[in-house]
């Protein structure tokens, strides 16, 4: 494998930890030699899932603990470094943290504008903060959340809070896509397509469209669904659709925080 082929390298590396590579390639190193080539541990980023207007002295996170077994071999049980540290040990051990502001990803400054949020999985995190923020500011703009996970029974993050936001009239629309509760997979973009006409109407009313979560698959598919909705309900050709999407971007109404 050549070093330039980043995609292939990343695919090969996905799921392999250092110990797997040392074993597979039968690398023989002394402890000192090994330590000398290791990089400092890298920071991990997590979206802030709360609003400082409602929790002035707290920062809430939504962390999915990375735990998996390589090749279904129970001896090859692997844990993500940071997510399982937070899940299993952060109650007892201090954890250095820093804040990296994301100036481009936020609620609309004008409180009366509608907001569409697409956040499957841990992508829901910032949108819990957005809803808290808009509630605290008393914004009158409508809010619509698309959330998806594997199973409603176990993975409906913030279920009670989201339902309360609905009761309080803060969350006007909640569209759910539990991918593995039926034989056919259902994803957030399928729910978007079912409600394409209304999404188009919200966009025409000036809605901001925000996406957070998986970059490799979800964000691309959601982008395609949005383009298709704009084209179909705007009655546009390809060039007009591209223009509309460009304008959404330029007006900072199509915001993405994907990873
Ligand atoms: C801007 C940004 C925002 C983020 N926000 C959040 C957030 O709000 N919540 C959140 O939970 N995460 C978020 N992340 C991801 C987070 O930063 C970490 O990457 C994640 O928690 C994993 O870190 P870790 O140290 O636990 O795992 P690591 O020790 O870094 O291990 C991850 C590696 O484990 C392997 N792996 C993971 N899952 C599997 C699997 N199922 N099968 C096989 N191999 C696997 C892959 O090799 C992967 O690269 C965000 C990332 C970015 C860049
Ligand atoms: N590279 C990988 O293979 C891989 C795999 C898992 C997670 N991750 C990473 O893990 C991090 C966090 O993941 P997460 O726990 O928040 O959840 P996630 O893995 O993003 O899954 C959340 C939900 O999204 C669904 N989903 C899968 N593919 C989708 C698509 N193309 N479009 C829309 N929805 C889709 C999942 O369904 P199904 O699971 O039923 O398909 C699940 O219901 C992200 O950084 C993600 O990139 C990467």
Helix and strand topology:
Elements: H1 6-13, H2 18-24, H3 31-37, E1 67-69, E2 77-79, H4 81-89, E3 115-118, H5 125-137, E4 143-149, H6 152-155, H7 159-167, E5 173-178, H8 188-194, H9 196-204, E6 208-213, H10 218-234, H11 238-250, E7 254-258
Parallel strand pairs: 3-4, 3-6, 4-5, 6-7
Antiparallel strand pairs: 1-2
Helix pairs in contact: 8-10, 9-10, 10-11
The chain binds flavin-adenine dinucleotide and NADP nicotinamide-adenine-dinucleotide phosphate.
NADP nicotinamide-adenine-dinucleotide phosphate (NAP) is lined by residues 14, 64, 120-123, 148-150, 179-180, 185, 187-189, 213-214, 216-218, 221, 259.
Q: Overview of this structure, please?
A:
This protein is an alpha/beta fold and 259 residues long. It has two domains: 1-38, no CATH class; 115-258, Rossmann fold (3-Layer(aba) Sandwich). It has helices spanning 6-13, 18-24, 31-37, 81-89, 125-137, 152-155, 159-167, 188-194, 196-204, 218-234, 238-250; strands spanning 67-69, 77-79, 115-118, 143-149, 173-178, 208-213, 254-258. Strands 5-4-3-6-7 form a five-stranded parallel sheet, sandwiched between helices. A two-stranded antiparallel ribbon has the order 1-2. Helix 5 links the parallel strand 3 (115-118) and strand 4. The two termini are 25 Å apart.
């Amino acid at each position: 494998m050549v070093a330039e082929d980043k995609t292939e390298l990343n695919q090969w590396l996905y799921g392999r930890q250092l110990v797997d590579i040392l074993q597979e390639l039968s690398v023989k190193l002394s402890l000192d030699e090994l330590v000398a080539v290791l990089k400092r541990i890298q920071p991990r980023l997590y979206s802030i899932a709360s609003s400082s207007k409602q929790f002035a002295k707290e920062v809430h996170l939504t962390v999915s603990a990375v735990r998996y077994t390589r090749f279904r071999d129970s001896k090859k049980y692997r844990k993500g470094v940071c997510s399982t540290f937070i899940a299993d040990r952060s109650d007892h051990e201090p954890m250095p943290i820093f804040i990296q502001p994301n100036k481009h990803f936020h609620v609309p400054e004008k409180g009366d504008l509608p907001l569409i949020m697409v956040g499957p999985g841990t992508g829901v995190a910032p949108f819990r903060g957005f809803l808290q923020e808009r509630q605290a500011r008393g914004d009158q703009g409508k809010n619509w959340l698309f959330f998806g996970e594997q199973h409603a029974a176990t993975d409906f993050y913030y279920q009670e809070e989201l339902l309360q936001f609905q009761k309080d009239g803060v969350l006007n629309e909640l569209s759910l896509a539990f991918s593995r509760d039926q034989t056919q997979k259902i994803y957030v973009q399928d729910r978007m397509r079912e409600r394409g006409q209304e999404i188009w109407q919200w966009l025409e009313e000036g809605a901001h469209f925000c996406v957070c979560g998986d970059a490799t698959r979800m964000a691309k598919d959601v982008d395609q669904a949005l383009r298709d909705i704009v084209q179909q309900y705007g009655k546009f050709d390809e060039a007009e659709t591209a223009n509309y999407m460009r304008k959404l971007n330029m007006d900072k109404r199509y915001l993405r925080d994907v990873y």
